[in-house]
Amino acid sequence: MRTSPSLLSLTIDSALLNLSNIADLSPLPDHIVLDLFLLPARTRYFLSSRHSTFESQLPLSFLPDVLRNSEIVLISETCTSLDYRVAISCFSEALYFGIELLFVFGKMSLAIRDDEIDIIIGAIRSDLTSFMNEWRPMFSRFHLIIVKDPDLKEELKIPEGFNLDVYEKSDIDRVVGSSTSVLFSGYACRYFGYLVSRKKYIISVDDDCLPARDPKGFVVDAVAQHITNLTTPATPFFFNTLYDPFTEGADFVRGYPFSLRSGVKCALSCGLWLNMADHDAPTQALKARQRNSRYVDAVMTVPAGSLVPISGINIAFDREVVGPALVPALKLAGEGKFRWETMEDIWSGLCVKVVCDHLGLGVKTGLPYVWRTDRGDPIASLKKEWEGVKLMEEVVPFFQSVRLPREATTVEDCVVEVAKAAKERLGSTDPVFARAAKAMLDWVNLWKSVGSISSSPAV
Amino acid sequence: MATVSPTPLLKDELDIVIPTIRNLDFLEMWRPFFQPYHLIIVQDGDPSKVIKVPEGFDYELYNRNDINRILGPKASCISFKDSACRCFGYMVSKKKYIYTIDDDCFVAKDPSGKDINALEQHIKNLLCPSTPFFFNTLYDPYRDGADFVRGYPFSLREGVPTAVSHGLWLNIPDYDAPTQLVKPLERNTRYVDAIMSIPKGTLFPMCGMNLAFNRELIGPAMYFGLMGDGQPIGRYDDMWAGWCTKVICDHLGLGVKTGLPYIWHSKASNPFVNLKKEYKGIYWQEELIPFFQSVTLPKDCTTVQKCYIEISKQVKAKLGKVDDYFNKLADAMVTWIEAWDELNPSGAKSAELPNGAAK
């Protein structure tokens, strides 16, 4: 039974609807603020903050019943840092009146500056003209590091108009010494870029990948999507069936514990590939005409404790948080210049995941897609290098069984522990593992000496 | 190239379980997809009300009187005035597979505008293996056009049997009451074209609106708890079943999939009513999740029933102190298993129990 509205009640109704536009409640008289937010005794509120605008979406028709009957009412969804202050001031008012306010704060999307990002390309092929031109709309804002595969003899062809630094064999030798530079041959050359970069976020795609289009025909900005992935929390401790809860139009589902809704920092973002998916050589050889045309519109966090083969073809990571854990370690005997002939990224990714799980960091997978061009012949690759597929039978159980000690609290310590375990448990199985373990230790040392200091890049 | 074989209908191996309190008009929209199958309708609420089932469906219907008659004193484990009563349908079914759906769920359209045959997709999900031991970044590797990615060990590519297929919802998303209150206008419009195995060791919030499972593999774990009338909590029935089910699946090496198919969820329930029902659950789930995450089942728990009884013991031991409700729930879990075994004696042909009368 509603009493007819008064001017005050109508004003308060309207204020609630427009709460987003009221940045500062302090000019309001106390009793109005109280009427706005507080209810008769024994009433509690949820205040939930998530996106960057402060909005009240409550249909007013619900409110009067609530005022009478309910114990809990929700007011608003989102908070900027400004509205944090409003919320906190309500909180103290509420406390004064003995009313409990339950705050549920979600993420706030961080604004990233362009100069916090490096795009690092390992040049396995010399002519990067069409690659760079296709990516120009996405790349040109950022600083790029191009690392030339030391085994590549031809001169690099790079179009004009980019802000970039190029590193070649001579640079690698100079910085890390010619004995250690072997770490960076082939696809692993990009790790040199990771080493010398001074930016927080790194995005890396293979030089045979182009921008993809989504089902609506729009070009996918892989850089923007990776940055979004890295700057919104990950949720590794409980699976959200609507996938990324921080994306527009989605949220945590019923049954998702509130204490887990703030998530953890996302350290790594793995993207996917249309056209040539990252299958191994036997699979691609068997399904020679298969091309990936399925665009799965989702990003999700890989749950803690669950390992995943992280392809290096399209990744991004927070270098400050997890840099040393991406290790150029596993070099196959027959390693070559096609992804079918490598497993270095898979080993590296497993190491990153184990470290992230131990340190409470998140790894996401899904969007963005890149378009991976047809290149090479899987059967030829299989003939050249077939051991990698077999080695996974040892590698995956190994990583699944690695337990990092509690004392390993830094990424470097964790990597060293993984290296030790690899040497112990896999070293005798195949010399490639003993070499990988050593490479990991060399990498950590390099990271400590070169990766952490600020040095000006050559060229 | 191998051609895609048509999905078997399994019409004699699958029952559709529908809890209802009002009417079953929604079945008209599902008719093209559901008509071949046998329905088990569990009528909640007032048993004297007559539920009209659309013509042409083969069904059995159970109301509260039937439940009491069939289970006797054990009927106490079946909730009243809550859709949790649907698990009675699982118990009396004689089929291998169950599909359960809410009466406010309709046929959705995929992005091309085509009607989605949800049941067909669930059957596909259940008939093909899961891969819970290593995450495949291209999601379901057995799907047309997909496969395992580089780095996926061949020894894990056979997968394990799939026990549960968890579908999703377009339009009204399955949010809890606080989220509904904050975002009453949000609609799920994102069609994510993927099915994936939930990794071993990872829990998830299982929604009962659009769910299928292999009754033979996991049926006894699908107890939807004590909810509704006379209980301090509601809207956690499917959550409870999901946590128990996942723990048992992980222990027994069975798979749980989530993703496609989508149905169209049409009705947004009143968030304030929901809040009252969920209120305790929202606080309790903070204890329940760590509890389930830490449950370990001994090696000699080799059947679902044994696993379930073991969980009920741990519920009593560790959650009884959170609230006395969990003592009651633990007892109800045992009652459920006793009732399940009575109605589903192993080895014997389960033809003795008469169906509820089709009204």
From TrEMBL, chain A:
Cellular compartment(s): Golgi apparatus
Keyword terms, alphabetized: Cell wall biogenesis/degradation, Golgi apparatus
Signal peptide as annotated in the record: none
Source taxon at top rank: Eukaryota
Sequence similarity: Belongs to the RGP family.
Name of the featured protein: UDP-arabinopyranose mutase 5
Classification lineage: Eukaryota, Viridiplantae, Streptophyta, Embryophyta, Tracheophyta
UniProtKB/TrEMBL annotation, chain B:
Signal peptide: none
Reaction equation(s) it catalyzes: UDP-beta-L-arabinofuranose = UDP-beta-L-arabinopyranose
Primary localization class, coarse: Golgi
InterPro entries: Nucleotide-diphossugar_trans (IPR029044), RGP (IPR004901), RGP_fam (IPR037595)
UniProt xrefs under SUPFAM superfamilies: Nucleotide-diphospho-sugar transferases (SSF53448)
EC number: 5.4.99.30
The entry's keywords: Cell wall biogenesis/degradation, Glycoprotein, Golgi apparatus, Isomerase
Pfam family of the protein (one): RGP
Glycoprotein found in the keyword field: yes
Protein location: Golgi apparatus
Record carries keyword Mitochondrion: no
Top enzyme class: isomerase
Job description of the protein: Probable UDP-L-arabinose mutase involved in the biosynthesis of cell wall non-cellulosic polysaccharides.
Record-linked PANTHER family: ALPHA-1,4-GLUCAN-PROTEIN SYNTHASE, UDP-ARABINOSE MUTASE
Family: Belongs to the RGP family.
Protein name per its UniProtKB record: UDP-arabinopyranose mutase
